[in-house]
Design brief:
This protein is α/β, with parallel strands linked by helices. It contains 22 helices and 19 strands. α8 packs across α12, α16 packs across α21 and α19 crosses α21.
Length: about 600
Amino acid sequence: MANAMDGPLGVAIVGMGRAGLIHLRCLRIRTDIEIKYLVDPVVAAAPPADLDIPPSAKLVADLGVPLADSAVDVVVVATPTPTHAMVILASLNAKKHVFAEKPLCCEPLEAPPLFASAEKNQVLLFTALNRRHDPAILAAKEKLASGEMGKPLSCVLLSGDYPYPPAHYLGTCGNLFKDCSIHDFDYLTWLLEESPTSVRATASTSDDERSCGTYEHANTCFAFPSGLTATFVHTRIAKSYDHRLTIVCEGGTIEVSNADLVDGKPITFAERFQDSYVAQMDFFVRKVQTGDVAPNISFERTRFLEHLSELAEDSVNADGATLPLEAAKAPGAFRVYDDDTATAVRELYREMRQKQTLAHVKRLRAKYDVLGARMTPWEALQSLHCYVDVSDPDVSLPNMVHLFQTAEGIREQGLPDWMQLTGLIHDMGKCIYLRGCDEDGTCIKKQYSVVGDTFVVGCALPPSTIFPEFNEENPDMADPVLSTKLGVYEEGCGLDSVYMAYGHDEYLYQVLIQNEGVTLPLEALYMIRYHSCYPWHQQDAYAHLENAQDRAMKGWVKLFNQHDLYTKKNEHFSPEKLDEMRAYYAGLMTKYLPETLRF
């Protein structure tokens, strides 16, 4: 529970499309809200004549303006779906409460840092699933829970969208399942208090040009453990917004319906759910005012709903096959180092902790910072086909496969091309094994000076290091100076002034800064040098050593780390995909790297 808030809440609404305007209407009728900003680069460049901007609000193009304003307490995110995660994370990191349109994100790897940031900053992450607040749906839930109608046997839900969405919306909303169906998948399973065991779906479109190649119609069937079945019919084609639910029970039916017309005119989805939008916003505001920062939709529920929509689309692609519901891999399932971890991994980290002293690191820096033979970037990467990182519990494929997975994950999110290339080369320093030896721990057999999970040497080892029980085996921890919090360093000296446990990160960093013609930005160099230092970017263990530049760069490293971890799969790429990727990333290498590098 965070501190309660007195006085009007300052609000910024980001995105002035259909959803943004709905939330604007809900907020401007409140006396405990002051709308400070409307944020939309397109609208700000050419404001529509009918846009009624509240007197208290400024129309701006840059999200950074409200995020830097201490008078803004809340950010309402109503931007195109592919931008949700980016806007949400920036807002949470700025310590703003966030009210976000569903879905929170497009890919599973985007969700964990959102919930982690909300918890760390003690702010509310609220997912807008307004149908949970609809009076008719709440009445149906209450009636079902009372037991007066007996056991539910089957459900049929029909949802016809109106008006037809504009092309620019269809192109960015994800698909029919993520845009429309997910609302009903959520509230019906919430209402029934039961999760399906299988999903089957079919989908089609009546007009490819009008629909921008997306589905216009979908039929989805859920089977539940109790024997109950649910059928969802979703369509973009309707003469008026139409939402109806029938739950067939042992003692009769429970209905949710709506009027087709109002004064002889069709109703829109905003009109049908007007009361629910107002009630939802009231619920959100009260949570913020009372300091209740527990998310209304948990991470587990978020992944569950994503999984349902993904399974529905997978079923369509499999010609309507029935697919079992399987648990998605949660963020805690990555980097799990426990008693079940392979003995070789534990012993590797034990040896790393025993050998990685300040003297060891200085010796290896003196040796390997002196670069020698030249290779092209591709040659260095191809050498990793022979290298499997013993320390990684998430994959057992050659490191080169993971590099492509990371780069493609970044590319799919539309992040800068320099970051895409960074994803591809971030572990390229593991080619140090080509000039390594057992004595240094820099070869395939002995990897304790190659692998990641780095830490600062020359000062006390924090308990947030992997296998902290091995810390006491480090010889420096018996030294009266090296075992102290600051050790040989000064407070605020900056990470560039400390020695990190030696590994592929430091080696590649030295390769890049010593070779002429490397034009990657500082953010990329930080990602490469520090992405394996989890005690710093995940646990803030070295905050006392940071300088202003480190603090400014940490967000980029954390963003990169999401893609480094949550794209790991034990899957190979097809030959066709490999050819396409090689051609694409060859262009980025030409842009940011010289033809050859000294290693």
